[in-house]
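Case study 2.
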Amino acid sequence: MSLEPIVRIRSLKQDRVNFVLENVDLSYANSLRRVMMADIPTVAIDLVEITENTTVLPDEFISHRLGMIPLVSVNCDEVMRYNRDCVCVGFCDYCTIKLVIDVQCHDSVTMDVTSNHLESAVAAPFNNNGMDGDEISKRAPDFGSPVGKGVIGQPPVLIAKIRKGQRLQAVCIAKKGIAKEHAKWSPCTAVSFEYDPYNKLRHTTYWFETDIKKEWPISDNRLEEEEPRDDDAFDYLAKPNKFYFEVETDGSLGPQEVVMKGIAELKKKLENLVLGLKAPAELDAGFGVDEPMNSAPPAWDQPAPANAWNTGNNAANSSWGSNSPRGGGGASAWGAASSPTGAGATSAWGGGSAAGWGSPSTTQNGWNV
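Prediction:
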């Protein structure tokens, strides 16, 4: 009898969580790690229009830095649409967030341009085209703002340094996306998991010079498991069933939301996989008891109509060969007829089914559905 999966949280902070996942397969644990890193949607700057840039950095450099600034994306999957799925022309409030930055140095000391200088702006002159939706009303007041803006003790992200007389002015458009498209949409800075800290399964080969225990110290996760003896027999059938996760976020989403949405996304992927493996009869019956397949012959088992390339099921001579599955195609410059009955005649590429190139009969080996 299989055991139910167990999740035990060991520590939870504002930007990270450490937990133990038990009674699952190694493939599931690794899939959860990958989903949390690459399949959870967030908001990030995707388009930058630089109006004025007299800093020492080129436009592309600044645009890249702006795109990597984490933005608050709480409940992003419900409060914002994908721009590619929106029915608007260009951009609108439902699928984009507009941010502006306009900084100029007037003093003789170096000035830091940071993410705190990014300000949210009304999406005008964007047009919502009279679309209806409650996505905007569900957003938090700071949704789309740089992470940590105005928070005491949390340093902002540095964009550039400017001197007196220099200016940076730009308009930024933030969109919803996932890290499979670009790493800037990843809500995590790192997701790691460990299993078998004593390496009892021997999945890891350590390189060492003199003493493997001194050169490869065991992690603190060893306290969760029993230390093996040196004379213990190796178990070839053993599998890992306890995994130690450490999830660190960039602040766009909380660690609890990352884990919960990662599990939900993985569940959705598995449901779609099961749905794709269902037979058509099961889908028509609403996933009920299996029903026999439709006994009607498939399209390729029907006689081919007469056309300019074939004069019927028993075409005598054709430069292309007979294209009827049941026809007895005659001589062909391309070889035996393409009929599953293998009744093609002499061919420059080899004989019919006797030469090994003909297809088997439709009544053999399950070809006749």
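The first strand starts at residue 6 and ends at 12.
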